[in-house]
Design brief:
seven-stranded antiparallel β-sheet; 202 residues; alpha+beta
Length: 202
């Protein structure tokens, strides 16, 4: 009986990884004393010009949700955006600049002005080179801000809610990096995480 129970646990979808472009993405991020468990909402491959694999993006939420509006407006829950680099070698500043460019198209002039200092801070966090397999992690911490880590090294925290909300518009905003990419991040694509029940709103 114990062997059977152990086998069921090991085969549980909660223990399996979601795979995108041969990248194994954990379905769950375990809870810590600083935040609750996070669940994979969706993941997708970002390609440039349909030829160049740029990164695999994955979004983790406390409460997985298909609604972009609900996710963007939720400032009370922990969230995580993960960028898995797929390019052989690229300047870290180039990645940050590309993220900034993708972010700006979803902002009003007033929002862009309000984020100028935050964007400059982000650019300063990215230096040197990044290689295939490297990761950049953006953790939203309610009532604190966005903690940015590169390859497990914490670079700093950008205070407030607006920055992370704006970052997420790159993937799930009105003008995302790709419509299919957005669907996959929202768990609506052809290969959604299968381990959890998605909500439709908060």
């Amino acid at each position: 009986m114990k062997t059977l129970i152990l086998s069921l646990i090991l085969l549980s979808p909660f223990t399996q990884a979601h795979k995108v472009d041969d990248i194994e993405i954990p379905n769950l991020i375990p809870a810590t004393d600083q935040r609750p468990e996070l669940k994979l909402n969706g993941a997708a491959l970002r390609e440039l010009y349909l030829l160049i694999k740029s990164y695999v993006g994955s979004l983790y939420l406390e409460h997985p949700n298909h609604s972009a509006e609900a996710i963007l407006n939720d400032t009370r829950s922990h969230k995580r955006m993960v960028f898995h680099v797929r390019m052989k070698r690229v300047g870290a500043r180039r990645i940050a600049s590309a993220l900034q460019d993708a972010l700006i198209v979803n902002l009003s002039d007033a929002q862009h002005e309000a984020l100028k200092d935050n964007l400059a801070q982000m650019l300063n966090f990215f230096d040197g080179k990044m290689h295939r397999g490297d990761e950049a992690i953006f953790d939203f911490i309610p009532n604190v801000g966005t903690r940015i880590s590169i390859n497990d090294e914490v670079k700093g925290i950008i205070p407030g809610d607006l920055y992370f909300q704006s970052m997420m518009t790159i993937w799930i905003g009105e003008h995302p990096v790709g419509r299919d990419f957005k669907k996959s991040i929202l768990g609506l694509g052809d290969n959604p995480p299968k381990y959890t029940q998605f909500a439709t709103s908060n």
